[in-house]
Every structure is written in C-alpha cells, then in structure tokens.
C-alpha cells in the first residue's frame, strides 16, 4: 500500500505537469505515448486500491484550468475526454461492455477520425454565434469568441431553418496541412517564426490576445457533436443524424463520418482510415467510435471523466527507416552538450525529419548507434522524432563506436562530465560563442532583464558583427552601433524583421526601432535583484531560485561572496545548487563581466537587511552539518557545538587537533583529516566570517516594522521614464509595500508617471497622497 500510494502521488504530479504544459503553455514536453502509459498506470492503481481514489486526481478531470488572460466560460454540459484503446482486444472489450449492458447483439456505431487540433464549443442563441470557448478543464474553458469569429468555416449565423433557440456545437479547430505548409513557407521567406506542427499551430492561434493574428492563420473548424439543445425543438435521435443536421446548418463535417456495426465494422473502418491517413487534408491520430443512438448513449452513461459509450482508437506511432550520416554536437545556453544525429531526410509522422536529438552519450551507447547504420525513426503526432533502433549495414561492416569530442566545437574549451550526471558540458561558459548568443538572449528576455526589442534576431546580428560579445556590452551600445548593424544585415540580405517593418511603414529609413531598443536597455539598468540573478544564466538558478537568493541575501555582493555551506542552508537550495552558484561566481571571466555590468551603470534593487529567520538558521551545530565533514552526524555536530559554542574557538581547537574533546576517536580523526586540507580550513574561516556578517544584518525579529513602507498600499499609473513599472513595483514590495492595481479609499500613495489617467483623477478626488517619478526615485535612493 505504501508503495502504491507513493507511485500514485508521483504519477498525479507528473500528469498535472504534463497537462499544464499541454493545455496552458501549448508547449508539451511529454510524448502522447508516454502520457497515455502513465495515465493508464494511474487508472489501474486507483482501481486496484479504491482507497487511493481522489476527486483531485487527473483521472477525474480533463486537462487544466483556463488561462487567466481570458474570461472563463462554464460549459452547460461538461466537455469530457475519451478513454483510449490501442489494441484490438481493448476495442473488443469496449463493445462487449456495451452488448452486455444494452443486451444488443450488434449495436450501431457512429465512426469518425480523431482530429489532432483543439476542442472547441460554439453556442448559438436564436441562430447567431454568441460564445466560443476552449475545453479548458472540461467544466470551464476560455472565452475565445473573438478569435473564433475569424475562422471562415464557423458560421456566424446558422444557415437554413429549424434550429433550436439554444444550440451548442462541439468540434475541433484544426490547421489543414496545405495551409500549415504554406504559412511556414511565407514565414520562412519573410524571416518570421515558424509553426512547429499543425496541432500546436491551431492551439497557439486561438490563444492569441489579438484576433488579427488569429485571422492570419489557416484554421478550420470541424464539427463532431452537439452539447446543449433547448427543448423548443425536438433533438436528433442519433449522433450521425445530428452531424447531418449540423452540415445542413453550415458546418464542416468530415466525409469520413460513417456508421457501422460490431467489432468487425469498427476494425475495418480503422484499417481503411489508417491506409488513407497520409492522404487526408489534416492530421489525425486515430478513430473515434460512438454509440449512434442517443437513447443508447444515455443508458450507458459516464464514468468520472469519459463517456462509457465512446472510445478513441489510437494509431500506433509511425516509424520509417533511413541512414545515419553523421553525429554532431550542439552547445546549449548553459553549456550542455547535445549529440544530434544527421539523417538522410525521411518523411515520418507528417514531417520531413533530417535531424534527431540523441540526448546524451549514454543514449548513444544504449542504442549502439553508429555513423553509417540504418536507423528506425519514430514519430507519433507532434512528438519530437526519436531513433528507436539501429541496424547494421547489409555488408555487416560497421564503423567504430562514436566518441564524445574532448573539446567544444565553438570555443575549444574542454568538455567535462560531472560525476553522476548524464550530460557533458562546455567549460567555456561566457567565453564560448555558442553559449554567448543564447546567454545574451536569455539575459534580455522578458522574465529576466526584460529588454523589449532585443530579440533573438537582433542579438544574433549584434554578435555576428562583433558589436556585442558580453552582456555588459549591451549597456555601451549607441545609436550608430545599431544602425551599422542594420546596414550590415541589409548588405547581407538579412534585414531584421522589426527594423524592416518600421522602415517600410514610414516609407523611408527610420532609427525609431533602434531608439526604442536603447530606451529599453536604459530602463533595465535598475532591475530587481532576482531578475538580474536569473538573467546571469547561473546553472540551476531559475526564477524561483533567483527570488529566494534575493530575499535571503539581499545584495548581489553577498550572493557573489556566499560560501556554499551558507547557501545550502537556505530553504529550497541544496548542495548541488549551492556549489553551482559558487562555481559560477568563482570563474574569473564571470566576475569580470559582473563587474563590467556594475561599471556600465546596472544597479540592482537591493536591501541591506536579511530576514530575521537567519538567526535560527545560522545555528552553529546546523552549520557544522552543512559543511559535510565525514562522520560528523547531526548528533556529533550538536555535541561539538556544545563543546565549542564560539565558532572562533572551534577554529582554534581545530588547529590543535581538538585535544580534550569527548567525541569518539574515529569522529575526531575524521575532523583532523578534513582540516588538514587547506581548502577546507579556508572554507571554515569563510563560513565563520560570513555567518557573523549575516547575523549582524538580520533584525532581532521579522516584524514588518523593519520595512520602510510596511502596511502601505500603493498604486502605479502612467509611464515611468527611468525604470519599468515592473521594476518599480518590485522595489516597493522589497520595502514592504503592497502594490495594488486600482485606487480605493484604502490606498495610501499613488505614483503617477506621464499620461496618468483615471487613477490619478480618483486619487486627487479622494485626497490620496500623490508622488511623481522624481519623488519615487528620491524615496528609493533613501
């Protein structure tokens, strides 16, 4: 039971993450096959151990809650998902359950393709489209009506007559393959962003905040069912009859919607559909079987997340053979080395595949894949292609096993593999050109330093022409630099998309785009400390870790100087992360670049105090444990701290070999051995000094009285010139203020930039204190 409970918890966490990536981010990392396997395992465990059932389990719901960027819509009838079948015996079991329940020997089924797009509901009141929503979590979805209205195949008003006062039509928004390829060709020609695949293209198009963007995408709505149907008109008696009625009212319904009987009919339809799959105008990943008569559907009913009267019969992953031409290595932003297989191009799963990641050296060894081998490539739906098998050439002569190169192909720095890790890394860090571009892009990204306009193409061009080599160079850019870069790109036929668009709009060369970039760079000079830490690209330091470091240590200088045992004592930062931070800060090139940033005027928003909880966390016995001295357990560390409560006395005793200590002989010998290493004795002194510094910076208590604006509610309005609204908000929050989005009688201060509107008017009417930008900067300086 304990093992099952732990596994159920692990599966639920994995599935929830996969749902979030798929439904909210439109950026799935898990393959359909992997998701299905884990989902089925969870279902089996919950059936085997009923006491582990929970309404919050992914097996009881569909997807994830809707994005807050869109208004929520509650579905009149839940939009449930379908259970999946992969094998013939699962289809047979599905039919057998129906036969047993309905006492019908040969039930009639409606059959249709399983579209690979985004499920949508359309509500029509008195024949006119009023609301269109995504499936969301099955109960509530996102209101994307404005975007759906741009799709020509969706009737804004129903055709014909005889429809009910309220009608909800359900179907799938898909991107036809011809339109998908044509769109990508246009983007490729203009240097725009390509769509990854039709399904993600459809989903991403509908989640655009600007319907004009959706209107440029080649989308089509395929109706596959009916939800709400008001009682003023008698509904159809069958599913297939309902589809015929929808077609009469102006909806696209697939030509492959048919009826058939029994297991043999279903399997024959599946065979025919599979044979024609590659010739269909849109992507599908299987067939859907539904009881045709609505009366039979009602009698079968539902399980928690799916109807008992329908099932999706999924196609197996597609596989093709080709030749492995070469294995190259790519260097990522953090220096990770990824082997990439270069293939003789092969068409599989709806796309032409010429490159496939091999992930790491261990994967290559496991597959025993070698250059010149015949390899089997698999791709299911929009899953990243993978090599699943290697076959020796017909002559039996195979090349020698592939070896990881010893040096980085971009900077010639040594490639290293840390103990216990699968990945190799380039040790060049900011010196490495391959990491340089990605590091700059990451540094300028919205969630890091938020330098608007400094996108991938601009950064690549700046590096390509030698204008920018390191992050500090961004703060020395001039208008002439940017214009020279654009001129060089023009000469090479690689005009930056943004600059080209602005030039075309004015009809003459313009420098406005460059001025906007310089302004954005200037506004980023006072970032919140956590943004700067995240932007530096320190290994293992994401947004959340950056926030933890900023809150716990307060200043960049402390983060740079903190010894790893102190960092390890911070909640949510373990030994691996602590050592990665120290390693980054110890590299001479990194130190030089951080100093260059400060010299260029980048001044992060900091606070000199640290949280009062440090007083408990810096308990001397606990820190001794954090030092990871062999054989020094928590119990022995407590005993040692009791003997030497003053860290300086401990250090002095260490020099004397801890003579007179009551600790066991083996523990004392381990302490002596540890201290004989000069690096360890230096680390101990560093920890002792830094501990004293933190204790001095930590207030006696963690009350809000230590913060200048504790208990104050502030509102920002208008445009600030010296820093972004986001940076101002985080600075005020660091000082204890609550930054609200609207003005009320409880507001203490309104900070008004240029073009402040109704919020400023309301503040003046209520007699609320108003600061201009100069007053804000003065307060922050103090």
Automatic annotation (TrEMBL):
Keywords: DNA damage, DNA repair, DNA replication, Ligase, Magnesium, Manganese, Metal-binding, NAD, Zinc
Cofactors that this protein relies on: Mg(2+); Mn(2+)
The EC number(s) this enzyme carries: 6.5.1.2
Span of domain BRCT: 709-782
The organism's place on the tree of life at top rank: Bacteria
Catalytic activity: NAD(+) + (deoxyribonucleotide)n-3'-hydroxyl + 5'-phospho-(deoxyribonucleotide)m = (deoxyribonucleotide)n+m + AMP + beta-nicotinamide D-nucleotide
Keyword Heme attributed: no
Residues involved in Zn(2+) binding: 408, 411, 432
Database matches in SMART domains: BRCT, LIGANc
InterPro entries, per the entry: BRCT_dom, BRCT_dom_sf, DisA/LigA_HHH, DNA_ligase, DNA_ligase_AS, DNA_ligase_CS, DNAligase_adenylation, DNAligase_N
Active site residues according to the UniProt entry: 114 (n6-amp-lysine intermediate)
Signal peptide: none
GO molecular function: DNA ligase (NAD+) activity
Uppermost EC category: ligase
Binding-site positions, NAD(+): 32-36, 81-82, 112, 135, 172, 290, 314
The keyword rRNA processing is annotated on this UniProt entry: no
Any Pfam family matching the protein: DNA_ligase_ZBD
UniProt function note: DNA ligase that catalyzes the formation of phosphodiester linkages between 5'-phosphoryl and 3'-hydroxyl groups in double-stranded DNA using NAD as a coenzyme and as the energy source for the reaction. It is essential for DNA replication and repair of damaged DNA.
Membership in a protein family: Belongs to the NAD-dependent DNA ligase family. LigA subfamily.
Protein name (record): DNA ligase
Organism: Aquilutibacter rugosus
Gene that specifies this protein: ligA
């Amino acid at each position: 039971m304990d093992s099952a409970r732990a596994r159920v918890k692990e599966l639920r966490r994995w599935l929830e993450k996969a749902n979030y990536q798929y439904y909210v981010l439109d950026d799935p990392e898990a393959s359909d096959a992997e998701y299905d396997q884990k989902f089925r395992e969870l279902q089996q465990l919950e059936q085997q151990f009923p006491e582990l059932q929970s309404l919050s389990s992914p097996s009881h719901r569909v997807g994830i809650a809707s994005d807050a960027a869109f208004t929520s819509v509650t579905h009149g009838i839940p939009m449930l998902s379908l259970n999946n079948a992969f094998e013939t015996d699962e289809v047979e079991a599905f039919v057998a359950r129906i036969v047993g329940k309905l006492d019908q020997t040969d039930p009639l089924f409606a059959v249709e393709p399983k579209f690979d797009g985004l499920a949508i509901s359309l509500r029509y009141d008195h024949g006119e489209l009023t609301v269109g929503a995504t499936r969301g979590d099955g109960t509530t979805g996102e209101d994307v009506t404005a975007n759906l209205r741009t799709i020509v195949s969706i009737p804004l008003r129903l055709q014909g007559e005889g429809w009910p006062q309220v009608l909800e039509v359900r179907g799938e928004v898909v991107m036809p393959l011809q339109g998908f390829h044509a769109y990508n060709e246009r983007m490729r020609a203009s240097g725009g962003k390509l769509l990854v695949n039709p399904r993600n293209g459809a989903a991403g198009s509908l989640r655009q905040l600007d319907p004009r963007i959706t209107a440029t995408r080649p989308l089509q709505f395929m109706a596959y069912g009916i939800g709400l149907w008001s009682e003023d008109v008698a509904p159809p008696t069958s599913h297939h009859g309902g589809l015929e009625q929808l077609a009469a009212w102006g909806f696209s319904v697939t030509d492959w919607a048919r009826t058939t009987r029994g297991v043999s009919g279903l399997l024959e339809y599946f065979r025919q559909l599979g044979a024609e799959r590659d010739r269909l105008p849109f992507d599908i990943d299987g067939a859907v079987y539904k009881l045709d008569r609505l009366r039979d559907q009602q009698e079968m009913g539902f399980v928690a997340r799916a109807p008992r009267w329908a099932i999706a019969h999924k196609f197996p992953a597609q596989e093709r053979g080709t030749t492995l031409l070469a294995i190259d290595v790519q260097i990522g932003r953090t220096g990770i080395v990824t082997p990439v297989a270069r293939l003789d191009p092969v068409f599989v799963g709806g796309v032409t595949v010429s490159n496939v990641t091999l992930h790491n050296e261990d994967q290559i060894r496991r597959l025993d894949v070698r250059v010149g081998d015949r390899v089997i490539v698999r791709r299911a739906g929009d899953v990243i292609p993978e090599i699943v098998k290697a076959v020796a050439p017909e002559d039996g002569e195979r090349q020698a096993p592939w070896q990881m190169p010893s040096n980085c192909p971009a900077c010639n720095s040594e490639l290293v593999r840390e103990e216990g890790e699968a990945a190799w890394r380039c040790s060049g860090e900011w010196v490495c050109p391959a990491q340089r571009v990605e590091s700059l892009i990451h540094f300028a990204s919205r969630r890091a330093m938020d330098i608007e306009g400094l996108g991938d193409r601009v950064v690549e061009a700046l590096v390509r022409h030698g204008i920018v080599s390191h992050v500090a160079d961004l703060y020395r850019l001039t208008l002439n630099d940017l214009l020279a870069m654009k001129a060089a790109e023009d000469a090479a036929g690689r005009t930056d998309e943004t600059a080209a668009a602005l030039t075309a709009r004015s009809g003459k060369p313009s420098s406005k785009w460059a001025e906007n970039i310089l302004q954005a760079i200037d506004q980023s000079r006072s970032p919140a400390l956590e943004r700067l830490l995240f932007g530096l690209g320190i290994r293992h330091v994401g947004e959340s870790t950056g926030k933890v470091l900023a809150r716990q240590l307060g200043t960049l200088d402390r983060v740079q100087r903190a010894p790893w045992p102190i960092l390890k004592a911070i909640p949510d930062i373990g030994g691996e992360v602590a050592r990665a931070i120290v390693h980054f800060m110890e590299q001479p090139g990194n130190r030089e670049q951080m100093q260059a940033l400060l010299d260029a005027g980048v001044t992060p928003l900091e606070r000199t105090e640290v949280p009062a909880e440090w007083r408990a966390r810096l308990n001397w016995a606990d820190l001794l444990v954090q030092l990871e001295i062999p054989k020094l357990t928590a119990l022995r560390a407590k005993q040692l701290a009791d003997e030497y409560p003053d860290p300086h006395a401990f250090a002095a005793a260490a020099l004397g070999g801890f003579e007179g200590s009551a600790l066991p002989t083996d523990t004392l010998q381990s302490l002596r051995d540890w201290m004989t290493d000069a690096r360890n004795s230096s680390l101990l002194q560093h920890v002792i000094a830094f501990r004293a510094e933190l204790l001095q910076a930590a207030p006696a208590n963690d009350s809000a009285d230590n913060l200048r604006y504790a208990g104050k509610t502030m509102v920002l309005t208008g445009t600030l010139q010296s820093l972004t609204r986001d940076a101002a908000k985080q600075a005020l929050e660091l000082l204890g203020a609550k930054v609200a989005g609207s003005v009320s009688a409880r507001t203490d201060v309104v900070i008004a930039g240029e073009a402040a509107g109704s919020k400023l008017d309301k503040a003046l009417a209520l007699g609320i204190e108003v600061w201009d930008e100069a007053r804000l900067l003065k307060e922050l300086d103090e």
